[in-house]
Protein: Septation ring formation regulator EzrA
Amino acid sequence: MKTSTILFIFLTIIIIMALLYVVAVLMKRKNEEKLDELEERKVALFDLPVFEEVQEVKRMHLVGQSQNTFREWNQRWADISTAAFAELESKIFEVENLNDTFRFIKVKDSLENAFDTMDNMEKEVAAIRTGLKELKTSEERNSEAVQEALDKYEMIKETVKSSEKQFGPATENIKERVVSIENEFTQFVALNTSGDPMEARGVLESAEKHTQELEKIVEEIPPLYAKLDTEYPAQIKEIETGYKQMKQDNYRFPEINVEQEIADVQAKVTEANNILGKGLLTEVSNINKVIEEQIDHLYDVLETEIKGRDYVKTNLPTVSEYVTHVEKNNRQLMIELDHTSQSYALNNNELGRARGFQTKVEELGQEMTNLNEAVKNKEVVFSTAEKNLKDSFNILKEVEGQQVEISTALKDLRKDEKAAAGKIEGYEFQLKTLKRRVEKRRLPGIPQSYLDYFFVTSDRLEELTTELNRLRIDMTYINKLVGLVESDLDVLETKTDELIDSAALTEQMLQYANRYRHTHKNVADAMERSLMLFSQEFKYQEALDEIGVALEQVEPGAFKRIESYYYQSETEEI
Structure:
């Protein structure tokens, strides 16, 4: 082997060994850093004032459940500070030895094991400190809360002692609650003094709850009892006194047993007092609502009769006079109907209605007589009488309104007759004017349809005149005829305008079309047909249409121009 090759191999070995040494040194240093971290955490853990906290709680001289809990935390701290600490020290020492001898694979496992032990120790110490803190806080909280609860209890106790009367039948129940709460506080003090704050806390919470309940009861009972002891009895007595006086004053209550209802209310008050003695405040409140409703009802019953009497005394004379007034009006209406029926047909059962009014008014008059007698004999139920008077008044008001309606309608008959008669002359003049307009045109003839409508209108007008001249006229039918005649005349006037205009326009169109007669055969033929329709058949609109179409064919726009000129001339003439 060559010398250079041997040298190369030797150098390579040296380099590899150097690299391995460097890696080993680095890994050792990294492990030492982790060991330092572990050492710092160990020192920090045992620097915590756990021992002082244990001693502080220990000095509270706890007993019972609290003492058992403390012993558990104390034992767990003892285990940590002795066995667990020794175990951790052993593991750290093992890691150091393995690291110094470069046994890095075992170092890794041992180091992880040591860190796990450290984590568990820290968690355990945290749990121990939390448990000790809760024990201490519970003791301190009991000390603070007890004074507050005792103060409230003493205040309630003093209130009950100094104001027993305002609690009525609930006094004994309240005293029993006071004694029960006092026993709970005594038990609490005993437990707290003997060093068992956790059990004492439960007793204190129960005492606080019962104290709050008692405080609410002490607040709510006085107003409830005041109603049962003072307000309701006073109201019941007032109702009893008022009822007796009203009976002496001859008031009647046929639909209600007031005495029985008063007894029912008194029974409810007794029931509510008994339940109040048991401390069942919700039930008492519900019964009180029922009592108030019953009392309000009784007040309403008495007040209704009192108001009824006042109403009857005030309005009975008024309604009686109203009956007389309406009866008088009806007699006058009957006379007026009898007189009117001789000249006019009455189509709306006016006479029958008036007789019905008379019957109803007579019935009401008898009711007023009976009511006056009942009042005089002190045999009236005023609330019922009040309702009857109001009903009677409304009936009389309705009857009077219908009387006025009929009377007004009778007056309208005469007005309508006069108005219809006054229109006859105008209708006749309008009809004659339309006739003269047609005659003035000197047409070759009049279309039969126009003549038919003219004669229908004329006959209708004649019928209207005949109806108005009857001894006993029917204004309903006459008013209908007036409307028909007016409508007929309007239609006839329109037909007259159409007749005259179509005839005149036909003549002008024929005259204008004459210039095309020899040059346009269609115009000549149209003129011939138009003349026949005009002069023989008197169909002036058809004649106009015939010549108009032909003229438009040879001279578009001519028809419209001639038509416009015609209507313009007619307007100027008018």
About this structure: Residues 281-341 form the longest helix (61 residues). Residues 3-147 form a domain with the Four Helix Bundle (Hemerythrin (Met), subunit A) fold (CATH 1.20.120).
